[in-house]
Amino acid sequence: MCEFCNRTCENTKRWGCLVYRQLRLFGLCCSTFLVIASTQVCPVKFVYGKLEVHKKAVTITYIIGEVLVMVSRELKETVLEAVDNQLNGNDPKCTTGTFGHSEKTMAELIDRIKCDPDRIFPEEELAEIIARKEEAIPLLMAFLEEVRDNAEQFSNNFDYLGHIYAVLLLAQFRVKEAYPIVLELFSLPNGLTDKLFGDAMTDYAGRIMASICGNDVTSIKQLVEDEEVDKYIKVEALTALAILTLNGELERQELMAYYKELLPTIDNPTILTLLINLCTDIYPGEVYDEIKEAYKNDKVDSFLIGMGSVDQAMVEGQSMVLYRAERDRNLQKIDDTIGEMRNWAYFENEEDSAEENYFEQLTNNNLNFVHQPKVTPIVNEPKIGRNDPCPCGSGKKYKKCCGK
């Protein structure tokens, strides 16, 4: 009897190929993980980011590496046999239909992620696409070209997310060939870029460019200096340069010299404010005088970031500020498309809905509950992050609401 699917088949003892499938979904293979286990072999189920045991107490964890290390010789032999089964096509029947077993073509998988009016996050399809990335890349590229050539048509469908998945996946795969197409999409006229990408434009554009530009900083600077480009794309281009610097691909001296040259020339208060915010995030020492002058001339939106935040970064020192910046997800390349998108408010979340229903019912059952007034302590207002909601309560990002 197979403990995973509670069915009997002649190959039940070879459940190990299920482990192999799950590892492959995460982009790993049996030669690149560390297993710490008891001598009791048992099935496992896939949980995003890790492997958990199914029914029996065995801990299984993975690391990137070259050596297969296992406490259990029996487990090692079983998994190696499973790999052999996988390569020879001898999959146990009990794995058919389980998560990780897909008979869909790549075209079908990509069609599934393009548009879903039901707003259900396609995690399994994305995982399969990532596992089969070499097969997926040409189709993703062709689709992105189609979106570029028919941008207005695609921008009119709010439920169409295929192009967002495509640019994130290609960024995760580090496909440099996608860079020119992405630049064209980010440079579309008449607000088309904003209509196509919405908040994803300000959440990911800089990180995407840094992931696939191949150190081509010239084209990024051209975006910054192009008067026709959306102001938020300009800021994201500046962010891409900062990400390259944090990754050691662009000298800090070159980056800060460019920022120093730009700061006095920027007339748009949104771009100037967000650039100062960015400089503060990566330590503003080299451009402190230019920033101070901008505040003196009342050119900065102090509601988004005050001079006090800049001074605080100076007090903390470069090492501390950079330590924090290197761990800031907003200043990192794209490495996890699923993790980036799975919690989007766009997608229906059954657990969240159940929780909301529970609290709604609880509220309705306690209409007579009297809230006692409480004293609100006086606290220092933190600076508003680049992608934080607008304090006015509109639900939009500050940059696209009161920060315009």
UniProtKB/TrEMBL annotation:
Pfam families per UniProt: DUF1186, SEC-C
Gene3D superfamilies for the chain: 3.10.450.50
Species per Swiss-Prot/TrEMBL record: Trichococcus pasteurii
Protein name: Sec-c motif
